[in-house]
């Protein structure tokens, strides 16, 4: 998905938060809307972070770009600014607006939980990368050992065959 589509999903969820808060919905319904919004924001942030550190393309593929550099830069900048504004608005809702009944403690708890989850995910990603490297290393060692073992058996078999055919 492109940043404009991801941002559209986030804005829709954000509007759902505002609507739920204005209608005085239950806390769990508001948190459900916040969860949807956070998921879309996370997807958008992931896309934007991937976009800025693009991987090297295959040498066998033709390079194609969906839009000009300027258009892509504007899309990314607009998405970042709109996310910042939505986050500021949600913080305002917690402190002074429709979500003030949840208070600053509710907002701080949300931020703390998000920070914990981010830390856990970063650790999980690091551990996954480490395990993947270890697996590839073990696979290389196993391949080398198997190749050497096969060569030893072939040499042994050829030696036995030469001895038995001469004798």
Structure description:
The protein is an all-alpha fold. It has one domain. 82% of the residues lie in helices and 0% in strands. The protein contains 4 helices and no strands. It has helices spanning 3-22, 27-52, 69-95, 103-166. The longest helix has 64 residues, at 103-166. The model has no long low-confidence stretch (mean pLDDT 84).
Q: What is the rounded Rg?
A: 28 Å
Arithmetic mean of pLDDT: 84
Major beta sheet, specifics? none
- Give the helices and strands as they follow along the chain: HHHH
Counting helices, strands and paired strands, the structural category is mainly alpha
Overall tally of structural domains = 1
Give unreliable regions as ranges.
none
Strand content: under 5%
Shape: elongated
The level of helicity is over 70%
Tally the helices: what do you get? 4
Q: Between the first and last Cα atoms, what is the distance in angstroms?
A: 74 Å
Number of strands: 0
Map the helices and strands:
Blueprint: H1 3-22, H2 27-52, H3 69-95, H4 103-166
Concise account of the structure shown:
This protein has 167 residues and is mostly helical. The protein has helices at residues 3-22, 27-52, 69-95, 103-166.
């Amino acid at each position: 998905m492109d940043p404009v589509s991801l941002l559209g999903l986030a804005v829709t969820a954000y509007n759902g938060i505002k609507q739920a808060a204005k209608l005085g919905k239950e806390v769990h319904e508001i948190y459900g809307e916040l969860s949807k919004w956070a998921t879309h924001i996370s997807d958008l942030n992931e896309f934007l972070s991937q976009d800025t550190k693009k991987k090297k393309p295959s040498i066998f593929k033709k390079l194609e770009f969906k839009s000009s550099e300027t258009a892509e830069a504007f899309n990314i900048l607009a998405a970042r600014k709109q996310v910042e504004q939505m986050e500021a608005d949600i913080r305002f809702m917690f402190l002074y607006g429709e979500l003030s009944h949840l208070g600053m403690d509710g907002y701080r708890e949300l931020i703390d939980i998000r920070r914990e989850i981010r830390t856990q995910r970063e650790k999980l990603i690091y551990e996954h990368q480490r395990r993947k490297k270890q697996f590839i290393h073990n696979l290389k060692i196993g391949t080398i050992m198997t190749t050497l073992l096969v060569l030893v058996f072939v040499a042994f078999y050829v030696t036995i065959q030469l001895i038995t055919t001469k004798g």
